[in-house]
Task: inverse folding
């Protein structure tokens, strides 16, 4: 049996990681046993470095000299002793070509109050080992550490087995090299250019910084411009993608990246479809155009579907909606989308990209994906988003209450529109909702989409709603319509854009008193809970009305009929 | 990690972290509420009693609801100064001030349009922005144990912090703030709420654990996939209930504190397995729970156990050690009000000057092994593992230890204020401080401030004496002698008093005595000045006679000097009724020996007993009325408990001062 001795050096702040690491090693031993390898862990007691005055440096050196691998873990500081351990190991390595030194820096939220100036020791140490030509690796969590460690260990064994000298310094360097992070590259590049013709800021950014790709800082700026430049809720999704892209490589990263690419595409298609349906409802109330059977069928499917439409369903819905608009020459605020029709034909790039995004479901189901898949899917998403880049010219807001203020001798009153701007960082702009003074009211409790004139807008209710606005809790929580329990209780399911969790909106059993009974009505309305019920009942009834107008179907009764 | 690794699901006194999501049970409802709140406001307040699990709820419960890319937490504990701790925590994530300043001109433009407008970002907001741009994860800035800012922090520290938070909230950066505070300190947040009105708008009370939740914790911990704990089949509910009963003991409360539960479960595990590495699998059964003794106050007992164990353990090395000494060594870890206080190694040694350093460190080490203390080597401080342990420590303190802490707090809070706004210590405070000064390691600033206060007090007293003297000189010449003595007495009295107080501390007493002598010399000089050229009746009275008088007044029993005085004057409203005033005449510097004075009225008065506790008015009382008692009895109650009984005759008074109307 071949024994590989591993020495772990770290300060006590990483005790947990060290313990988990120890568990991992013992676990590895079970597997390696068959290969005739045993990993022996040389671990020094914690607190030795913080308390004891009489340290046995010689013993340390002796221990390190006998080791094959020295693992150094660092977090917020480099303890004096940990640095000495590194130095000792490095000296020994220079003399006898052993042990290998694997250095990991934890890159994680700091769970502490006061950190001393010793943080500087960390920065200094990083620089020092950088100067030595020693590569180091960052890790975010113990899983991540173990992953990285395992791949290094595999390579170590591979080298040992092929008889390669595993101990040259050159090799040490190569061991430490990381796969460059290519996530987001395509997306950022394509989108920043695609939206530049729709967003003055982005255009200026590009013309002032043609070399932005060379500068880490400007790349990050470009990313933030995309997050905030792309229309509201889609920015939220892009933020997630970009954030995942920044992470260290891991299985979980790939998985979430793929999932979120798909969701981003889906939300984008939903947004356009919902805007089209919402406007179509307005048109049909006055124009009542005759739809073809197949058109009617697709709409009916949308309103009755008991599961959320997938990307290809949405693509079909989009095509039908665009057909209806063009056949009846209806106008549409997002007029650019009317030009989409030829671009989304079967076998177009757009169509193929949607298919690729649709198929992410299979990749995820089999847990069978690679970094290449991520790049491919990212490219597909970029194609879809670039084609829809005109959305960057639109803004979304959630209008809450409207206050009216007219005092004695005022010729006219002020309408104070309370609203929340929905952009890529919505969650953080919700705390202070804004106020806008207007001379007339506007539909309240609505999520609206507009270009430059806020009065000329598409009301996205009841397909996109602000749950918190309706619930009168403050803040904003944007939900997209998902599906209807058509074959059950007819309740509506909405999906929260931040975490895709579902909320069910049902008709409350708290009906609003009749308008004729003013006293009862006033009393009822004075209670906040009632107003909240009223708001959600409205969502429910608006959906039924839209359905009736667009498909001709009355609300189906859920009660048994005898 | 591989699924075959068994995990021990209890955390003893540590809080649960995001990684512990799978072993965190019984909190779903609260997690949901908290999760909703962070979408409703940029500021969320979490409060609850100590030991209800606030920290775990945030770090594990809330954090666990977010995907890794939607959550970047920055935990900030006050440490030695909250503002520095915040800065350092940000620096670690790359948001140090320096990095944030290196900005591209371009970005400034962009900022103006979308962010704060013309107003530039504060350093804190800029750091946050820099960090955000590294990972694009929304930042959750969590201030844990926020009460420390109020219990341990200075006004100045609080103000600076408040200002940076306001700046951050105005900056519209992707950051949310969560404050976690013990509920008994909620009142301290009033000033903050004034500036940050949304602070209380979204708040969550973390409830203590009731039986239902305890069941979820125990059964959950035993039933998740990789747990090395299990419960005997069919006994799940009974085991959980028995544990609940054991912990609440005969208190019959409906809830128990989480640390108690954790300590109990840990004890139970150890009792069955004896495996300190906590790896052996174990099955809890009703029988094994019943074997555990009655616990009552689990943590208090646990701590007491550990203290006696450690005393025994160290006995062979340090012959003289006993439990009392160990409690003393623990004392600096708890604040006066029984919360935990992080303390550095050197500070700890300074606070325990009478102890051998090795002993203190060994005791510390022993408590670390038993997980009662933690050593945080990022800032090199020790800290008790949980607030609920601080209470028993605080309760073990002697009166004197408490007084020292009290004094320390007083000095800290006063000197903590910016110098421009700081007030000098008052006479009363100085008297309170003096005996303990030798036991404290004061900073230069604190020392300077105390001597400044003393100096100022002295000058004020002298000024006052001079003024009084001038005033009186103008009035009645015949009273010169008495007045002069009075002036002397006022000046000397204070310092004699300070000196007496300070005698309790040898070193300081010496200093104070020195000062008293100086003051006496100064007063003597003043006395001679006063007497010069004052007519012959005074020239006969030598310094030594004056000093004799003074000596007697200082040392003889108080009863010899006390005289009851009265004055009667017509009321302003005219008519028959008059103002009657009664007071004690006595050497003013001995007033403090008197606790209160009871004036007993005769029949016919509504309140027949009137009490004055006011030394500044010479314990006077006054009334407006038509009549008086011929003879009044006055009881002077001394601080020592003795009573001096005096009589006052208004009949005699009116004989000597006939009414002239």
Result:
């Amino acid at each position: 049996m071949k024994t590989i001795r591993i020495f772990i050096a770290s300060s006590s702040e990483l005790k947990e990681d060290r313990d988990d690491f120890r568990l991992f090693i013992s676990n590895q031993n079970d597997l390696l046993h068959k290969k005739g390898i045993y990993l022996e862990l040389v671990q020094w007691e914690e607190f030795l470095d913080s308390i004891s005055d009489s340290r046995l440096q010689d013993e340390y050196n002796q221990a390190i000299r006998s080791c094959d691998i020295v693992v150094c873990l660092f977090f917020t500081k480099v303890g004096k002793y940990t640095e000495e351990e590194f130095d000792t190991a490095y000296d020994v390595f220079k003399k006898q070509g052993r042990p290998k030194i694997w250095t990991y820096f934890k890159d994680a939220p700091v769970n502490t109050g006061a950190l001393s100036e010793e943080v500087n020791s960390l920065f200094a140490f990083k620089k020092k080992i950088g100067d030595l030509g020693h590569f180091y690796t960052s890790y975010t969590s113990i899983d991540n550490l173990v992953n990285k460690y395992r791949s290094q260990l595999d390579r170590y064994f591979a080298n040992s087995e092929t008889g390669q000298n595993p101990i040259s310094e050159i090799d040490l360097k190569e061991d430490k090299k990381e796969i460059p992070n290519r996530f987001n590259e395509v997306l950022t590049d394509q989108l920043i250019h695609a939206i530049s013709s729709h967003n003055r800021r982005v255009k200026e950014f590009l013309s002032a910084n043609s070399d932005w790709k060379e500068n880490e800082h400007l790349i990050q700026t470009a990313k933030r411009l995309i997050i905030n430049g792309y229309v509201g809720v889609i920015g939220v999704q892009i933020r997630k993608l970009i954030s995942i892209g920044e992470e260290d490589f891991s299985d979980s990263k790939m998985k979430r990246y793929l999932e979120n690419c798909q969701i981003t595409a889906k939300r984008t298609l939903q947004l356009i479809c919902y805007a089209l349906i919402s406007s179509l409802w307005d048109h049909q109330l006055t124009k009542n155009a005759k739809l073809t059977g197949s058109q009617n069928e697709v709409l009916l499917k949308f309103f009755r579907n008991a599961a959320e439409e997938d990307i290809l369903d949405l693509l079909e819905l989009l095509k039908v909606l665009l057909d209806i608009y063009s056949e009846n020459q209806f106008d549409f605020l997002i007029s650019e989308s009317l030009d989409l029709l030829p671009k989304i034909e079967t076998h177009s790039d757009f169509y193929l990209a949607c298919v690729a995004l649709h198929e992410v479901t299979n990749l995820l189901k089999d847990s069978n994906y690679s970094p290449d898949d991520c790049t491919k899917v990212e490219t597909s998403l970029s194609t879809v988003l670039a084609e829809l880049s005109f959305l960057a010219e639109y803004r979304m807001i959630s209008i809450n209450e409207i206050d009216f203020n007219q005092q004695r001798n005022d010729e006219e009153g002020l309408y104070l529109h309370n609203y929340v701007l929905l952009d890529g960082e919505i969650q953080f702009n919700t705390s202070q909702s804004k106020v806008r003074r207007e001379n007339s009211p506007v539909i309240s409790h609505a999520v609206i989409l507009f270009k430059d004139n806020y009065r000329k807008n598409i009301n996205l209710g009841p397909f996109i709603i602000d749950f918190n606005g309706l619930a009168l809790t403050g803040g904003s929580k944007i939900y997209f319509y998902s599906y209807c329990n058509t074959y059950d209780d007819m309740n509506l399911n909405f999906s929260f854009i931040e975490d895709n969790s579902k909320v069910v909106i049902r008709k409350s059993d708290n009906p609003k008193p009749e308008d004729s009974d003013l006293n009862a009505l006033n009393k009822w309305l004075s209670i906040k809970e009632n107003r909240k019920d009223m708001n959600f009942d409205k969502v429910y009834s608006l959906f039924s009305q839209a359905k009736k107008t667009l498909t001709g179907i009355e609300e189906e009764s859920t009660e048994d009929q005898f | 990690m591989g699924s075959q690794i068994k995990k021990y699901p209890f955390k003893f006194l540590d809080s649960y972290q995001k990684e512990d999501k799978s072993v965190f049970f019984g909190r779903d409802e609260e997690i949901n509420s908290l999760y909703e709140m962070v979408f409703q406001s940029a500021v969320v307040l979490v409060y609850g009693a100590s030991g209800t699990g606030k920290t775990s709820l945030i770090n594990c419960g809330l954090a666990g609801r977010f995907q890794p890319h939607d959550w970047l937490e920055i935990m900030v504990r006050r440490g030695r100064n909250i503002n520095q701790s915040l800065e350092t925590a940000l620096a670690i994530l790359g948001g140090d001030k320096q990095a944030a300043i290196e900005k591209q001109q371009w970005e400034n433009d962009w900022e103006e349009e979308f962010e704060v407008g013309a107003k530039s970002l504060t350093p804190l907001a800029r750091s946050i922005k820099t960090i955000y741009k590294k990972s694009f994860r929304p930042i959750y800035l969590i201030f844990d144990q926020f009460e420390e800012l109020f219990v341990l922090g200075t006004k100045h520290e609080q103000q600076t912090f408040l200002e940076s938070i306001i700046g951050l909230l105005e900056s519209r950066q992707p950051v949310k703030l969560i404050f976690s505070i013990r509920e008994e300190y909620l009142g301290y947040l009033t000033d903050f709420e004034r500036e940050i009105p949304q602070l209380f708008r979204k708040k969550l009370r973390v409830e203590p654990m009731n039986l239902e939740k305890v069941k979820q914790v125990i059964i959950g911990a035993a039933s998740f996939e990789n747990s090395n704990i299990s419960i005997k089949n069919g006994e799940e509910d009974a085991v959980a209930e028995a544990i609940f009963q054991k912990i609440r003991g005969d208190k019959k409360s409906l809830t128990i504190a989480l640390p108690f539960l954790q300590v109990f479960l840990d004890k139970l595990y150890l009792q069955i397995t004896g495996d300190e590495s906590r790896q052996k699998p174990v099955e809890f059964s009703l029988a094994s729970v019943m074997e555990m003794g009655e616990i009552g106050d689990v943590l208090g007992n646990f701590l007491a156990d550990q203290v006696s164990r450690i005393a025994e353990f160290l006995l062979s090395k340090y012959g003289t050690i006993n439990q009392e000494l160990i409690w003393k060594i623990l004392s600096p870890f708890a604040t006066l009000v029984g919360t935990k206080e992080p303390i550095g190694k050197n500070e700890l040694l300074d606070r325990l000057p009478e102890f051998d350093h090795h002993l203190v460190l060994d005791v510390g080490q022993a408590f670390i092994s038993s997980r009662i203390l933690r050593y945080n080597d990022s800032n090199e401080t020790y800290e008790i593992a949980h607030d609920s342990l601080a209470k028993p420590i605080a309760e073990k303190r002697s009166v004197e230890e408490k007084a020292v802490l009290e004094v320390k707090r007083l000095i800290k809070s006063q000197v903590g204020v910016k110098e421009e706004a700081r007030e000098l210590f008052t006479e009363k405070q100085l008297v309170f401080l003096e005996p303990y000064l030798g036991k404290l390691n004061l900073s230069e600033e604190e020392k300077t401030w105390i001597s400044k206060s003393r100096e100022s007090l002295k000058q004020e007293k002298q000024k006052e004496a001079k003024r009084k003297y001038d005033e009186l000189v103008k009035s009645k010449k015949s009273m010169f002698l008495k007045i002069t003595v009075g002036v002397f007495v006022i000046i000397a009295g204070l310092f004699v008093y300070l000196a007496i107080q300070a005698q309790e501390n040898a070193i300081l007493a010496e200093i104070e005595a020195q000062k008293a002598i100086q003051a006496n010399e100064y007063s003597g000089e003043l006395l001679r000045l006063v007497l010069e050229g004052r007519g012959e009746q005074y020239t006969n009275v030598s310094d030594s006679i004056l000093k004799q008088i003074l000596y007697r007044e200082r040392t003889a029993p108080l009863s010899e000097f006390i005289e009851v005085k009265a004055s009667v004057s017509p009321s302003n409203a005219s008519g028959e009724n008059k103002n009657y005033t009664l007071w004690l005449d006595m050497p003013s510097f001995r007033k403090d020996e008197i606790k209160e004075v009871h004036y007993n009225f005769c029949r016919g008065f509504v309140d027949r007993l009137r009490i004055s506790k006011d030394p500044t008015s010479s314990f006077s009382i006054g009334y407006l009325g038509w009549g008086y008692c011929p003879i009044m009895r006055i009881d002077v109650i001394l601080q020592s408990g003795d009573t001096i009984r005096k009589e006052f005759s208004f009949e005699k008074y009116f004989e000597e001062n006939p009414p002239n109307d």
Q: What stands out?
A: Chain B has 26 helices and 19 strands. The radius of gyration of chain B is 34 Å. Chain B has five domains: 38-207, 210-298, 322-397, 446-555, 561-656.
